[in-house]
## 1
Amino acid sequence: MGKKIKKEVEPPPKDVFDPLTIESKKAATVVLMLKSPEEDILAKACEAIYKFALKGEENKATLLELGAVEPLTKLLTHEDKIVRRNAMMIFGILASNSDVKKLLRELEVMSSVIAQLSPEEEVVIHEFASLCLANMSVEYTGKVQIFEHGGLEPLIRLLSSPDPDVKKNSIECIYNLVQDFQCRTTLQELNAIPPILELLKSEYPIIQLLALKTLGVITCDKEARTTLKDNQGLDHLTKILETKELNDLHVEALAVIANCLEDMDTMVLMQQSGSLKKVLSFAENSTIPDIQKNAAKAITKAAYDPENRKVFHEQEVEKCLVTLLGSDSDGTKIAASQAISAMCENLSCKEFFNTQGIPQIVQLLKSDNEEVREAAALALANLTTSSPANANAAAEADAIDPLINILSSKRDGAVANAATVLTNMAIQEPLRAIIQNHEIMRALLGPLHSTNTVVQSTAALTVAATACDVESRNELKNCGGLEPLIELLHSKNDEVRRHASWAIMVCAGDELMAVELCRLGALDILEEINRSLSRKNKFSEAAYNKLLNNNLSLKYSQTGYLSSSNIISDGFYDYGRINPGTKLLPLKELCLQELNDQRAILLVNNKSDISPPPSMEDKSSDVGYGRSISSSSSLRRASKEKANFRFSAGFGSPTEEKSEPASGRNTVLSRGATKEKGARHWLIKSGLAAAWCVVSTAEGGTR
């Protein structure tokens, strides 16, 4: 037997690196390993980074600082499936960090992530790719990138995945995406509603909740509501409401039903099937505030349609809403008040709330919550519009005092609503007297100064409704309300201008107030408005005429004539023709002026309450052509001194009837000189005037 020869061990090749096991406790070292060409090292490095990132937000920020994101993005397209999977898992976790999301958008990795959603990829990759997209879709820019790279279609496909995590991530991402209108339209085209409805059967509440939230958004569109109805979606929703164990889903289910009730066909269908009655009963008997609130919101949305209001009335929805008014939740009270506001467009509903509802709403006007007060005032405004019975019911429930208090609210809506209710009440004279006793004009001062056009408009309208007597107008004047009211005439808003004109027309109901309004410039502004074809309105024209008709001295000076209905009385004076834009000075100021060579001012006055300055007393009998205002006693003295008698009216002596006035004004008096002579002498001799006074017929007028 031959001797065994021992084989020599061959030395390792010189060009091969001996295997090295590395144990690192530093994240920076592992990040460096991401640039390795070895698949095994890349896979292990990604696995270690994934575990590190799972531990918290600080670790995610650390990985970002170490520069791990950029090399990881390159691994998303790696040939090795394990490396690609592990890299995708990291991004699913890292994408929850806002800074990482920003960098990912800049690196434009969206197409690489969406590619991982393909059917060929394993479920784990689907899970973390959809998680990454769900995190990225929280921000608007991320939504845009996902949509533009075609991410919606694969996400809809993954709704049917056998893995619940994939379903959850996909529906969450879709929910974020459909906040955008364009995405909702595309979702409808991709027929996404059937798979979303299937998620309502899931055993996982979070998936059901996200599905309902998504349906709540997309059913804002009519086509989506139709698709939902065609796929028996209403049955699914009703079953959820009937299942007590699913009470955490009831709020969102009601939100979807609220959208569906906007369609008349759906309303009729639910009425016929009995589902509508169940929904209303469910809302009325529920003890969960959010459920009651959403039920009221559902009624509000649907009640904007007249036919829907009719159906609701047949279902006695008013009783449900009155019950909700008594809720302990402010949100429910607000929603119920808003629903009543919408429902009372129906006359039968409005009549129902006359005895049931108005007292409860009035109580809400006293709430500490301003939103509750605003909603209650809105309901009351709609209930009292064109309804004297409801206005009386509100007054009997002591609504006036809280309504006036609301006029000082910081919420414009509350102020406008309260002003509207007061206007509706003030239409009735007994209620108007009560409102006036509550210092309504002073309370309206703040709203008249508001910068909100709705508040301005309603406040001016309330002034028009309440300033119907001298006392109220004086109250408005004394509290400084005329100035802001006149200022509203400058508004660019048509309704504000119209209502302000209306209020001024009412305020000009007596001569003293008309004179004051003219003094403050109301007539000039109205004249300017009426010259504009686009800005004038019937009320601005009526207000302008009312001001002139209650200030005949000004009317005659501006227009040169008076109509047959204009009856002059004590205090009328003829200053002479004035140019547009020129102010007519009041008598008191004219009395203080010195004599000059201008034509005299003609005054009609049966009283001697306007006395001239002392210097005029001695010269009243011989003032020539000077401008003068004298007392009746001086007139009588003048009539006795006929030798020195001259007509200070500027027409010369009785034998000079054809002379022109000193001012050159061709007045009606000179045109009817012969007829006026007797009247002129009669007035002077009888002492009925405080100056040289003339009564004449002129162009249909009486002077």
## 2
Amino acid sequence: MQATEDEIQIVLEIDSFPLMEVGHLQATENWDFILVSDLQKTNPNRDQRRQRFLAELKKEGFSIKEIEDRKRLFFGIRAHSSIFTQYTDLLKDVSYSAPPALSSGPVLTTTARIRIVNFILRKKEVNGEKFDDLLKDHVFETKFPLHEREEFLQSNWARWRDIFYRQPIDKIRNYFGEKVALYFAWLGWYTVMLVPAAGAGLVVFLSGFSLFDASQISKEICEASETIMCPLQDHQRKYWRLSETCTFAKLTHLFDNEGTVFFAIFMALWATVFLEFWKREHARTASHWNLYGWDEDQEELALELINNPTYQLQKHQHSYLHSSAILIFSLVMICLLIGMAHVLVVYRVMATFLFSHSALPFLEQQLTTAVVVTGALVHYITIVVMTKVNRRVALKLCDFEKPRTFSERESNFTVKFFTFQFFAHFSSLVYTAFFLGRINGHPGNQVRIGGQWRLEECHPSGCMMDLFVQMAIIMGLKQTLSNCVEYLSPWLTYRIRKLRESSKGRRLHDPSLEEWLKNYSLNEVNVFSLFDEFMEMMIQYGFTTIFVAAFPLAPLLALFSNLIEIRLDAIKMVRLQRRLVPRKAKDIGTWLQVLEAIGVLAVIANGMVIAFTSEFIPRLVYKYHYGPCSWGSNSTADCLTGYVNHSLSVFHTKDYKDQVPSQEIESVTECRYRDYRNTVDYNYSPEFWFLLACRLVFVILFEHVALCGKLIAAWFVPDVPQSVKNKVLEEKFENLRQKLCLSSRVTDV
């Protein structure tokens, strides 16, 4: 039986609200988009432009319903079925289905309808003006698709009690489109894969408790009451005893122990396995959604032709001049971000001076710890500010580049914005890990800023403590404070908007208006709403992998954060925000390359942290080259006996040229400091150069072993499961066989 156009249209309309009751459907009408105009910002010229735009839509076959409410005009628009027939004819789209009763007529899903109508609205040009131009000039205030009465997602996904339940990815795809569904599929897979990483990090951290009191190094530090250390600051120039750092020495072994190396290698392999298994999971999802044959460029061209039959093809363009300018501006921006890390160094130097003159006893006693903590807080504030700057700069560079399509623009924006964000988040950590305390000179000849302010030293228990504290504070704030703001901000905004748009005292003569007002009172969304969620997760992934050797609890913190993040995003999208315009996609796009780049950086960074920041290599070299167990000795003593004394250099106090420290302890003739220098001219000792060679050898070996492991893991785990390959192969075979049969029939006739 052939279906009439009206019957198909009825099915299209019913498909838009699959879970609504029939009685409600009879009372209200179905609209693809709602346009809103603010009457307070209107004038005769804007009225004419608005009417011209709406008249052009009517010519294209759109049905329009106008309702005035207080100081706003609402326009419900619905596209004619002929537009969607053109779409399916041009693309033979696989994202539609037909009910058995009307199997001869294609029925697009609601997400496809919204996507097509949004494209037409965005591209429609009247007298040289597009819809975005009308928005900027307040001809229209906003546009949005309506939320459906999606009871399943509200009751089985967007609730806190479902935090440990599997996500209904297919339902999410049917409601929000493939792009959003792939984000939640990836986030869910990432969260599941964090479980073994979090477990391994927790084991490494807890294993440090076995060394809390048993470590030979901690014992020597706690008993070193006679070891006098050189002053660490200019403005608190007092000698101090090494035993004062007893507690911090024990705490350092919680994350800087023998298991750190194996955990860093494990995380390098984990990052590879995670990506490879995600590729397999994505391949299954793409096969299930029939996305293998979908071509984004082809769909974009089809929509352009539907919107404008006279459309002229816009080809890809490349300009070496533009590319060079963008590269130069990007490098300038990166230098600025690195400069922000230097500003933080200056802050910490100034904070040392201010805290040393503070009236609070705690700040004077824990001066170094207070400087590290406040420095991390300032770093977090800097990240928040520079994120806004980075976004604007990246958008300007993308506009200058003139990409052909929105997807191309989004991809270019992703690369630029992530690069800027990476330097904003990690420049200070790189300084802390590899430069802090290593470019300061030595007692009596300190490097100073402007010849006056002495550079800060590492924490008395080692530079690893500085990196651990900074990582813990920044990641902790981003995962807690950011999540709170991410939820509370839209929740409060929604409540305020709802109060302003309250229908009390109104008589709603049209049942459609109530639904429109409910959607209007929700928070606005933009084209980068989902992008922001992806960016947040990429930065978290960077913290979880790049410096994980200094913070083994990062995967555990990320796991807890992601369990909350999934439900936060679900509640925002379903209950607090207007409906996102569905976008079709067959993968997560450029983000996959970002993940692969982070994996490579993680191998390099963790190898260098273990070699140059932690005490692993110095302990290992002492144990087998200088200590009581070296050269095959059969000593019964602990192999690290004497390590603390070996790792401290001697400085003669008579060599102080100015600012001689106070003599509060006793008459001090020599003091100790962390370094490998001789006692004559304070140049680097032979032990320093031998240790440096061992560090470099370790970095080379670590990176080669980790990268080889990554390559083996990538080879061992195929990107696409054999079942998916066989399914695609069978479909190709069946299509060819059907064409052959059809060709034979035509020949016979």
